[in-house]
Design brief:
By secondary structure, the chain is of the alpha+beta class. It contains 27 helices and 18 strands. The radius of gyration is 35 Å and the shape is globular.
């Protein structure tokens, strides 16, 4: 095991945190080497605040938490357990040799290149994703938020300068014809303008930088959580709908980085302007407040309808996106059936619904915007009308009236900008709700709450196993009990819909039993870490998915650091090496999306090699050869003895020729195990298996 992970495990356990480093290594794809950034990521994923620092022993002892991870000058990890300043001694632990040793402070400083300071967060419960999550994350940047708030406050104070300068110019400079005062005011105004410009640029830079860091953190959290969701989450939702929910991150990003939050901050500080306006004229201030309140009321009234139309637009967009994905994925079927016209008509129906919902949303936003613009103009006219009356009556000077008008604009500006952003704000609220469908959905059992074993042997026991897709639905599997010893090859056959593939998914812990249990090496699979379990199970599906990259990348996908010798070995066992070697670029041949550039037989042999790369003790073939031509199937069958050697193999098939040589054959019918035994025994029983045998022309 990687020494850095052993060291991290010790630090975690000393913080009373139970971690499973084998599961962590699998989850983060850690091989023999690990970078500092990877270790920091692992620490943060396990609720540690982690920082890399260059420190002396005295600095560490002055207040940093122990134990800490130590990286020496050649990259070897150890754990700093204790510092004793009185005796000038440091106690460390060597994870490679599993023993502790002492160094003086001077020796420690000479040896150490970096410290990884780990401080565990005391988290009482998982925070539900919503705006509270953003609030908690923003509070991690307290110093930066304080700087933004201070900058906003100063900017708002500078907003007082222009109206006051204008008032002085109108009431003092023009009346007294004081050009000297005008020059002084102009220079002061220019200095304030330049300082305000620099402050605005700095404030917005700090804020946008922080917002992008928050955006990156949310993006990583979202994708990690998505991959950790149960398989049934994806079965219950269309691909396009999931993709649409993930893209809601763009709406949140746009809202945060579009100065929306600075507008809210400016709105808060606009209270300063209200206080100043009251000093000028209570009556005019109440007029301004009345119009601004009326504009805000209009948007509050339309909010329910706005949210309804936003939701309608999202649903129509998700349906259009799902249909597009479905059409492109099934393009071969579309062209084979010559149904382009039908597909186009359906697409236009989907697109028409989306355009209609978008227009409906834009229309209500446009009406509200037009009304608010008219009210703003009426506010300006009303203030001027009443203000001129006050000037004529001697209650205000012309300078004070103009200054008040500017203060009113400064006050109403953030409010009206927020009103203009109301549509985006409602969109962001709905986006948070939709992301919550992903981020608030429970993940599979995390690594610190599940069992992992040093090594999987491969014995299986199904104990009265039953499964239903829905609580009130029919049983897909019904009371199956069987024991399979390690190293056995087992065939699973039955008519379509008998539950064969469902059984394969249950063994991988993609589904959980409704009743009964599956024991793997005498441990209930429900209590096993799903990531570790699947890492130790090789699976070959009927339609194995190949990813963009090279053939080498696809074979080594479960084990990215696999040496070329191992890749060649598993390719030869799978019968793939011969055709790969004939390709111009060999193992570096690019594979197009879904492996479309390769034949079905070639894709399947690469998938078998990929399943063998971890040397799994349990191997599952789920209808892996049912769609292959005779030649490809024959090549795989020729290599089956090598493939099955030293591991438990489960072969789900409908072609009986592929499972004749199995040590045990299980026959399923309507979810029940109706027969079991070897090929010859089952034929003699003259039951379901014998009937299938006869149907296939044996």
């Amino acid at each position: 095991m990687n020494p850095a992970l052993i060291a991290f495990e010790l630090v975690a356990r000393m913080n009373r945190i139970d971690v499973d480093i084998r599961a962590i290594a699998r989850e983060f794809s850690i091989g023999e080497q690990i970078t500092v950034d990877e270790l920091l990521r692992i620490a943060k994923a396990n609720d540690f605040k982690a920082k890399r620092k260059k420190l002396t022993a005295k600095q560490v002892g002055s207040g940093y938490p122990l134990p800490a991870l130590v990286i020496d000058r050649v990259g070897v990890y150890s754990v700093l357990l204790k510092l004793d300043p009185k005796q000038d001694k440091a106690l460390l632990f060597d994870p490679v040799h599993r023993k502790s040793f002492e160094l003086s402070y001077a020796q420690l400083d000479e040896r150490v290149a970096d410290y990884l300071i780990l401080r565990h967060k005391k988290i009482s419960s998982q925070v539900v994703f919503g705006f509270n999550w953003f609030l908690q994350e923003i509070l991690h940047f307290k110093r930066i938020i304080a700087e933004v708030l201070l900058g906003s406050f100063v900017v708002q104070l500078f907003g007082l300068v222009t109206p006051l300068f204008t008032q002085v110019i109108l009431d003092k400079v023009i009346v007294h014809r004081s050009l000297t005062t005008l020059d002084v005011l102009a220079i002061a105004f220019l200095a304030v303008a330049v300082f305000e410009l620099l402050l605005n640029i700095s404030r917005n830079y700090i804020f946008i930088h922080t917002a992008h860091k928050l955006d990156a953190k949310l993006g990583c959290k979202l994708f990690k959580h998505l991959l950790g969701l149960p398989f049934r989450y994806f079965e219950a939702r269309q691909v396009g709908t999931i993709a649409a929910r993930v893209r809601e991150l763009d709406n949140i990003r746009e809202f945060i980085t579009n100065k929306a939050v600075t507008v809210v901050i400016d709105l808060f500080f606009s209270l300063v302007f209200v206080a100043v306006m009251l000093l000028y004229s209570v009556k005019l201030t109440l007029v301004a407040l009345a119009f601004v309140s009326l504009i805000a009321l209009i948007y509050l009234v339309i909010t329910p309808e706005l949210r309804r139309r936003l939701e309608s637009k999202f649903q129509m967009g998700a349906q259009s996106n799902s249909y597009l994905v479905e059409s492109v994925t099934g393009i071969q079927t579309v062209k084979s059936l010559a149904v382009e016209g039908t597909m186009q008509n359906r697409w236009e129906d989907h697109l028409g619904g989306y355009v209609k919902s978008s227009f409906s949303l834009a229309n209500i936003a446009n009406i509200a915007g037009a009304i608010s613009g008219t009210l703003r103009q009426l506010m300006t006219i009303s203030i001027l009308y009443l203000g001129v009356k006050a000037v004529l009556q001697g209650d205000l000077t012309i300078g004070q009236l103009i200054a008040f008008q500017m203060f009113a604009a400064q006050f109403s500006g953030p409010v009206l900008r927020l009103v203009n952003l109301w549509h985006e704000f409602q969109q962001a609220l709905l986006s948070v709700d939709r992301l919550g469908d992903i981020l608030n959905h429970p993940r599979e059992v995390s690594s610190d709450k599940a069992i992992t074993l040093p090594r999987l042997k491969g014995s299986l026991k199904l104990d009265h196993l039953s499964f239903t897709y829905h609580p009130d639905g029919p049983r897909v599997l019904d009371g199956i009990s069987v024991e399979i010893k390690e190293g056995m090859s087992v065939g699973v056959v039955g008519r379509s819909g008998s539950g064969k593939s469902t059984l394969a998914k249950l063994l991988q812990r993609l589904y959980l039993p409704t009743e009964g249990a599956i024991y793997i090496d005498d441990i209930d699979s429900r209590h096993m870490n799903p990531f570790w379990l699947r890492y130790n199970i090789g699976v070959v599906l009927q339609e194995s998915y190949l990813f963009s990259g090279t053939i080498r990348d696809n074979i080594a996908l479960p084990k990215p650091d696999a040496p070329m010798e191992l890749i060649l070995q598993v390719a030869q066992i799978a019968g793939a090496h011969e055709f790969i070697a004939q390709l111009p670029e060999g193992y570096d041949t690019p594979v197009s999306e879904r492996g479309a550039s390769l034949s079905g037989g070639q894709r399947q042999r690469i998938a078998i090699a990929r399943a063998l790369i971890n040397n799994p003790r349990l191997l599952i073939f789920d209808e892996a050869t049912s769609a292959l031509d005779y030649e490809s199937e024959h090549i795989i069958q020729q290599n089956m003895k090598k493939i099955k050697q030293g591991r438990t193999t489960l072969i789900v098939a409908h072609r009986l020729a592929t499972i004749k040589e199995c040590d045990l054959i299980l026959v399923l019918d309507k979810g029940k195990l109706v027969e079991s035994g070897r090929h010859e025994q089952l034929l003699q029983q003259r039951g379901v298996y014998a009937g299938l045998h006869a149907q296939q022309g044996f």
